[in-house]
Amino acid sequence: MEIAPNLHQLTIPFVVPTPGGNIPRFVNLFLYTGERLTLIDSGVAGAEQQVSRYLNEMGRSVQEIDALILTHSHPDHIGAARTIRDLSGCRILVHAAEREWVEDTEQQQRQRPVPGFATLVAGPVPVDQVLRHGDCLALDAAVQLTVLHTPGHSHGSISLWDQQRGCVICGDAVPVPHELPVFDHVQQSLASLARIEACNADMLLSAWAEPVRAPAVQTALLEAADWLHRVETVVQQLAGSSMPDPLELCRRVVAELGLPPLAVNPIMVRTCMACL
To answer: Is the pTM of this model over 0.90?
Structure first.
């Protein structure tokens, strides 16, 4: 759907296979349709088919994609990047701290094991441009974005400030209260929320939530910060002064937070460790 002039949101459903059953998920991609096409995140492997169908309905083609900007390197954001590049020859842009995992997905799978990783990611893809905080991307006469480094969810997570449309595309930098919290550094996540808030945006576009429009943007950011504080507090209280078994701590945290049993997984273990 078109959510602002020349800016579209595509929602890609997928499942994460786990020994306890499939976890249904989705990820939002964002597409700028000026003279050239710019895609923000690629979705999981196979998402290129939905992107192609959407573009064809507008009389455009996936071959016209000029730039693919990755907000970070996790599977649901880079999974189709290799295929989209093969189809379009587009440039791949990502923060310096994420480059290694984009260009070496096997290393990412070893260092951050995710159930079903091989089914979610089509493969590695070379990076053409490394992004840093404050970079101004003049991708088209109708598309000018400012890069915000918003780490926490991952070390090189970025958000994109579109001042012309008054929106911030934030990837996974803004957690959804009462949903699975995923981050590598809780204090960095909180600082990133403050950096996004300082934009005073009229619209917040997240990879895992519906668009949030003013005046609800500030409320959403405050609620996200409260959720991070809640997770951190619960982890530290249950861990106590000793270093507990990570998996057992994760089980106790999940129960205390009221999350579903499938939330006891390697990603949530990583989150718990990030609070200690």
So the answer is: yes
